[in-house]
Protein backbone atom coordinates (compact mmCIF):
# COMPACT_ATOMS: atom_id res chain seq x y z
CA UNK A 1 0.00 0.00 0.00
CA UNK A 2 2.86 2.39 0.79
CA UNK A 3 4.19 2.04 -2.75
CA UNK A 4 0.77 2.25 -4.41
CA UNK A 5 -0.12 5.71 -3.08
CA UNK A 6 3.05 7.30 -4.52
CA UNK A 7 2.41 5.49 -7.84
CA UNK A 8 -1.15 6.87 -7.82
CA UNK A 9 0.04 10.44 -7.07
CA UNK A 10 2.91 10.28 -9.59
CA UNK A 11 0.46 9.09 -12.23
CA UNK A 12 -1.79 12.10 -11.61
CA UNK A 13 1.22 14.43 -11.88
CA UNK A 14 2.53 12.64 -14.98
CA UNK A 15 -0.86 12.92 -16.66
CA UNK A 16 -0.45 16.69 -16.85
CA UNK A 17 2.65 16.16 -19.00
CA UNK A 18 0.85 13.53 -21.06
CA UNK A 19 -2.16 15.86 -21.48
CA UNK A 20 0.15 18.66 -22.64
CA UNK A 21 1.83 16.45 -25.25
CA UNK A 22 -1.48 15.05 -26.51
CA UNK A 23 -3.11 18.47 -26.66
CA UNK A 24 -0.16 20.20 -28.32
CA UNK A 25 0.95 17.61 -30.86
CA UNK A 26 -2.08 15.35 -31.39
CA UNK A 27 -5.20 17.44 -30.82
CA UNK A 28 -3.62 20.47 -32.51
CA UNK A 29 -2.06 18.16 -35.09
CA UNK A 30 -3.51 15.10 -36.80
CA UNK A 31 -6.37 14.92 -34.29
CA UNK A 32 -7.61 18.41 -35.11
CA UNK A 33 -10.58 16.91 -36.97
CA UNK A 34 -12.06 16.05 -33.54
CA UNK A 35 -10.58 18.88 -31.45
CA UNK A 36 -11.63 21.64 -33.86
CA UNK A 37 -15.18 21.41 -32.50
CA UNK A 38 -13.84 22.57 -29.13
CA UNK A 39 -12.52 25.81 -30.66
CA UNK A 40 -15.89 26.64 -32.21
CA UNK A 41 -19.16 27.71 -30.63
CA UNK A 42 -20.92 24.60 -29.35
CA UNK A 43 -24.38 24.14 -30.82
CA UNK A 44 -25.50 21.28 -28.54
CA UNK A 45 -24.41 19.65 -25.34
CA UNK A 46 -21.93 17.29 -27.05
CA UNK A 47 -19.09 18.06 -29.45
CA UNK A 48 -16.77 15.82 -31.47
CA UNK A 49 -13.93 16.70 -29.07
CA UNK A 50 -15.78 14.77 -26.34
CA UNK A 51 -14.61 11.57 -27.98
CA UNK A 52 -11.15 12.29 -26.57
CA UNK A 53 -12.57 11.77 -23.10
CA UNK A 54 -13.65 8.27 -24.12
CA UNK A 55 -10.34 7.56 -25.91
CA UNK A 56 -8.29 8.61 -22.87
CA UNK A 57 -10.53 6.66 -20.46
CA UNK A 58 -9.84 3.35 -22.22
CA UNK A 59 -6.28 2.85 -20.86
CA UNK A 60 -7.53 3.66 -17.37
CA UNK A 61 -10.33 1.10 -17.65
CA UNK A 62 -7.91 -1.50 -19.03
CA UNK A 63 -5.40 -0.90 -16.22
CA UNK A 64 -8.10 -1.04 -13.55
CA UNK A 65 -9.46 -4.29 -14.97
CA UNK A 66 -5.95 -5.71 -15.26
CA UNK A 67 -5.09 -4.77 -11.70
CA UNK A 68 -8.33 -5.81 -10.06
CA UNK A 69 -9.54 -8.74 -12.16
CA UNK A 70 -6.71 -10.11 -14.25
CA UNK A 71 -3.89 -10.29 -11.71
CA UNK A 72 -1.58 -7.67 -13.20
CA UNK A 73 -0.76 -6.35 -9.73
CA UNK A 74 -1.41 -3.36 -7.57
CA UNK A 75 0.73 -1.10 -9.75
CA UNK A 76 -1.82 -1.43 -12.60
CA UNK A 77 -4.69 -0.54 -10.26
CA UNK A 78 -2.77 2.46 -8.90
CA UNK A 79 -1.87 3.73 -12.38
CA UNK A 80 -5.41 3.15 -13.68
CA UNK A 81 -6.86 4.95 -10.67
CA UNK A 82 -4.38 7.83 -11.16
CA UNK A 83 -5.39 8.22 -14.80
CA UNK A 84 -9.07 8.14 -13.78
CA UNK A 85 -8.46 10.69 -11.00
CA UNK A 86 -6.72 13.05 -13.44
CA UNK A 87 -9.67 12.63 -15.81
CA UNK A 88 -12.10 13.54 -13.02
CA UNK A 89 -10.02 16.58 -12.03
CA UNK A 90 -9.77 17.65 -15.67
CA UNK A 91 -13.52 17.19 -16.17
CA UNK A 92 -14.30 19.28 -13.10
CA UNK A 93 -11.92 22.11 -14.00
CA UNK A 94 -12.26 22.12 -17.78
CA UNK A 95 -15.85 21.23 -18.56
CA UNK A 96 -17.57 22.41 -15.38
CA UNK A 97 -15.58 25.41 -14.13
CA UNK A 98 -14.05 26.85 -17.32
CA UNK A 99 -16.60 25.98 -20.02
CA UNK A 100 -19.59 25.80 -17.66
CA UNK A 101 -21.18 22.79 -19.34
CA UNK A 102 -22.94 22.31 -16.03
CA UNK A 103 -24.53 25.44 -14.58
CA UNK A 104 -22.98 26.63 -11.33
CA UNK A 105 -22.28 29.78 -9.37
CA UNK A 106 -18.60 29.17 -8.69
CA UNK A 107 -16.34 32.14 -9.38
CA UNK A 108 -12.58 31.63 -9.43
CA UNK A 109 -11.10 33.78 -6.67
CA UNK A 110 -7.78 32.20 -5.76
CA UNK A 111 -4.76 33.32 -7.79
CA UNK A 112 -4.19 29.73 -8.97
CA UNK A 113 -7.76 29.19 -10.17
CA UNK A 114 -7.85 32.59 -11.85
CA UNK A 115 -4.59 31.78 -13.65
CA UNK A 116 -5.69 28.42 -15.06
CA UNK A 117 -9.10 29.76 -16.10
CA UNK A 118 -7.51 32.77 -17.84
CA UNK A 119 -4.86 30.58 -19.44
CA UNK A 120 -7.48 28.32 -20.95
CA UNK A 121 -9.51 31.29 -22.18
CA UNK A 122 -6.37 32.68 -23.82
CA UNK A 123 -5.87 29.28 -25.45
CA UNK A 124 -9.32 29.67 -26.99
CA UNK A 125 -8.60 33.10 -28.50
CA UNK A 126 -7.08 31.21 -31.44
CA UNK A 127 -9.61 29.24 -33.46
CA UNK A 128 -7.11 27.40 -35.63
CA UNK A 129 -4.78 24.53 -34.85
CA UNK A 130 -1.68 26.73 -35.27
CA UNK A 131 -0.42 29.73 -33.32
CA UNK A 132 -1.78 28.75 -29.95
CA UNK A 133 -0.49 28.87 -26.37
CA UNK A 134 -1.14 27.08 -23.07
CA UNK A 135 -1.64 23.40 -23.86
CA UNK A 136 -1.48 22.08 -20.32
CA UNK A 137 -4.30 22.57 -17.91
CA UNK A 138 -3.45 22.19 -14.24
CA UNK A 139 -0.12 23.95 -14.73
CA UNK A 140 -0.28 27.16 -16.73
CA UNK A 141 1.91 30.21 -17.21
CA UNK A 142 0.59 33.56 -16.06
CA UNK A 143 -1.78 35.41 -18.41
CA UNK A 144 0.88 38.10 -18.97
CA UNK A 145 3.35 35.51 -20.25
CA UNK A 146 0.70 33.93 -22.49
CA UNK A 147 -0.32 37.32 -23.91
CA UNK A 148 3.33 38.04 -24.77
CA UNK A 149 3.59 34.62 -26.45
CA UNK A 150 0.41 35.26 -28.47
CA UNK A 151 1.77 38.69 -29.49
CA UNK A 152 5.09 37.17 -30.57
CA UNK A 153 3.27 34.52 -32.63
CA UNK A 154 1.09 37.19 -34.27
CA UNK A 155 4.10 39.37 -35.09
CA UNK A 156 5.97 36.39 -36.55
CA UNK A 157 3.07 35.73 -38.93
CA UNK A 158 3.10 39.28 -40.29
CA UNK A 159 5.25 39.66 -43.35
CA UNK A 160 7.31 42.72 -44.13
CA UNK A 161 5.86 45.09 -46.74
CA UNK A 162 7.19 44.45 -50.24
CA UNK A 163 7.55 46.60 -53.32
CA UNK A 164 8.40 49.81 -51.53
CA UNK A 165 11.69 51.15 -50.34
CA UNK A 166 11.83 52.96 -47.06
CA UNK A 167 11.95 56.71 -47.46
CA UNK A 168 15.32 58.17 -46.58
CA UNK A 169 16.04 61.66 -45.51
CA UNK A 170 18.48 63.49 -47.68
CA UNK A 171 18.99 66.34 -45.27
SSE layout:
Blueprint: H1 4-27, H2 32-35, H3 51-68, H4 74-98, H5 111-123, H6 143-157
Main attributes of the structure:
171 residues; mainly alpha; 0% strand; elongated
Description:
The chain is built from 6 helices and no strands. Helix 1 packs across helix 4 and helix 3 packs antiparallel against helix 4.
TL;DR?
This protein is mainly α. Helix content is 58%, strand content 0%.
The shape is elongated
Q: How many helix segments?
A: 6
Q: Percent range for helical residues?
A: 55-70%
**How would a textbook summarize the main sheet?**
none
Q: What's the total number of strands? A: 0
Q: N-to-C SSE series?
A: HHHHHH
Strand content: under 5%
Low-confidence stretches: none
Tell me the structural class: mainly alpha
Mean pLDDT: 91
Radius of gyration: 21 Å
- The span between the termini is 83 Å
